């Protein structure tokens, strides 16, 4: 069941839970039955034409006020900001720039929806049992080949030179494009819409992204997991094909191209890195679907902060399972994220330092301060949200 109001879209996903989508920001929020009823009341035309009409549901006035504030904050009650004056819009933009997460900066976006819709037959074919079975067989046989000591020797003895590194880099970039497309294709296959596919800087490293937020509307957990895992799966499939290609050329033409094996190995490693759930990469989304906890990262940080704020009341709202998840995930995530920041900064420092030591230090210190400020702003926001 789906109700579309002017600025929001309400979808029932389970018996008593609903997903509300803000159509202008594309953000999703999961709420319960009573909260949904109240939201429908607030956005109803009778209410907006005559606000003297009063709410007759189960919520008390305190709960109503709380929800009213939340819905306003999420933009559910207002129609776009287009009506606001230029000055206000600019201030809003300025604030957003500082409040947004600079660890993920989006550079360019395309809308693949039309392309996916016109190729829906090919997409359905890709998910047919036969194609899936062939894919699985290719993967299994390549996995088997890797355990051959000769293959390991080829990789170990392979000498990397500049042109090989450049070629490998290009191959990996192409692979990542295919990885993102795989998310889009899987999301489409299960009935979602994919309206954004693009390039971004993730911890200042170039990366691709695909907006598959429609997965929140999927009722089955396994479909969400499938969409999140499809990128890595496809990447590993390409590794497997490279290994098959190597063996084929070697066996029939005695032609030895170790770059194929090297690519397979690096590509496999990139996939593994993507599975680490402590930053918002594919592994993170898979973990949130498995645990069935939305905004796991934000909630975990808030949970840890609530100890610093001596606020045991905040923690009471969560179940034992959730508390354990927040504690373990939050702690590991803090450690991992800090390590990742330092690794990113250090590699930039090393790269620039080759050309000019002063520039190396300046650039890495500047980026470090931006990251630091961003961290303070984020923490401040999180701190305020713990009531
Ligand atoms: Zn991915």
Automatic annotation (TrEMBL):
Listed transmembrane segments: 125-146, 166-185, 197-219, 225-253, 260-278, 284-305, 326-349, 355-377
Domain of life: Bacteria
InterPro entries: MBTPS2 (IPR001193)
UniProt entry keywords in alphabetical sequence: Membrane, Transmembrane, Transmembrane helix
Keyword flag Transmembrane: yes
UniProt-recorded name of the protein: M50 family metallopeptidase
Organism for this UniProt entry: Paenibacillus tritici
């Amino acid at each position: 069941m789906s109700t579309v109001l002017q600025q929001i879209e309400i979808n029932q996903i389970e018996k008593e839970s609903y997903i509300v989508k803000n159509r202008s920001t594309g953000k999703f929020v999961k709420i319960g039955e009573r909260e949904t009823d109240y939201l429908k009341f607030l956005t109803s035309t009778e209410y907006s034409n005559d606000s003297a009409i009063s709410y007759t549901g189960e919520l008390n006035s305190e709960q109503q006020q709380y929800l009213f504030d939340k819905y306003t904050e999420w933009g559910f009650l207002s129609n776009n900001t287009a009506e606001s004056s230029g000055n206000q819009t600019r201030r809003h933009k300025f604030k957003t720039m500082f409040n947004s997460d600079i660890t993920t900066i989006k550079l360019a976006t395309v809308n693949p929806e039309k392309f996916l819709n016109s190729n829906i037959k090919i997409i359905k074919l890709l998910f047919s049992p036969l194609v899936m079975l062939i894919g699985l067989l290719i993967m299994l046989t390549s996995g088997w080949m890797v355990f051959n000591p000769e293959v390991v020797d080829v990789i170990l003895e392979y000498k990397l030179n500049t042109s090989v590194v450049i070629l490998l880099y290009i191959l990996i970039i192409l692979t990542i494009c295919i990885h993102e497309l795989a998310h889009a294709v899987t999301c489409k296959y299960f009935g979602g819409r994919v309206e954004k596919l693009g390039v971004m800087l993730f911890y200042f490293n170039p990366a691709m992204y695909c907006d598959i937020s429609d997965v929140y509307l999927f009722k089955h957990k396994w479909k969400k997991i499938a969409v999140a895992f499809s990128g890595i799966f496809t990447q590993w499939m390409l590794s497997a094909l490279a290994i098959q290609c190597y063996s084929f050329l070697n066996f029939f033409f005695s032609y030895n191209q170790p770059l194929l094996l090297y690519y397979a190995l690096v590509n496999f490693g990139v996939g593994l890195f993507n599975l680490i759930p402590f930053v918002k990469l594919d592994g993170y989304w898979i973990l949130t679907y498995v645990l069935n906890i939305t905004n796991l990262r934000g909630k975990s940080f808030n949970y840890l902060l609530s100890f610093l704020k001596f606020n045991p009341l905040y923690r009471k709202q969560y179940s034992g399972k959730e508390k354990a998840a927040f504690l373990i995930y939050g702690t590991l995530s803090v450690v991992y994220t800090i390590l990742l920041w330092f690794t990113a900064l250090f590699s930039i420092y090393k790269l620039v330092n080759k050309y000019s030591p002063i520039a190396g230090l300046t650039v890495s210190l500047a980026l470090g301060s931006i990251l630091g400020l961003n961290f303070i702003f984020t923490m401040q926001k999180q701190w305020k949200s713990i009531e």
